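Record Mediator of RNA polymerase II transcription subunit 18, 252 aa.
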Amino acid sequence: MQPLHQLDRRLIWKAYRKPGLINSRSGASQDLQGLEMHRLNKMLNGGMFHTQVVGPVSHHDFGSTPSPSSPSQCQDTFMSGTGPVPAPGSDEKIPPAYNYDNQPWRLEFRDIPEAGTRSALTTRLMANASLPKGDLLPLMNAWGYGFVSEYLVEGDMFIHNDILIFLYRVLCYPTGSEESHEPRRQLPALHEMEPLDKSGSYVLQATIIVQDGSNQEAMKTASQHLFGFREQLRSAVRLEQADRLSLDTRAK
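=>
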């Protein structure tokens, strides 16, 4: 397939509720689903747990309401104090301004990789859940989570057989911009966003999603495909296992 460009807002939330507010019943069944749900509840019960909310955005959402004293140009359109307007004589339609109240969100849960495994791959439980559009602050506060910060991820998604390849970079809000204690309702111009890696490098992530982690045959096949893909890219890109501590979502 052709690469799919992705531009996401990523919001970080920290749990401040007291541990033990979520109660889960442990029955006699020891099936995989029960174990995963037990692990999920155990993780969410942690008083120092961080989670991530992701919202897709487009290029037209950035710089939709710039300051009248500092007009900027984006996507071949001229920007004014009231929003982008097409160039004189152009039939191009005015892109809509960013509407925070219509922003879709999804909650991404990523478990901490298990310690002591000798595999050269990182495996962990993943779960996604759709959230209501718009302002998430009342909902997340009701769940016991407070807003910490946010950043932007820009990249392209490729699919190679059963492998998801994500080539991306992390963008931070401009230095000197006012720190917000809640998700931003307006976004600066995209060219003002600052790369976290000043060298301009990108991260390449190769992933295979296995629906049933207890299926050893499926896990083995997925591992073999990832190892084969690593060999294919050995002369161009060095793929290596991520440090499990860098994927720990608990505060240190």
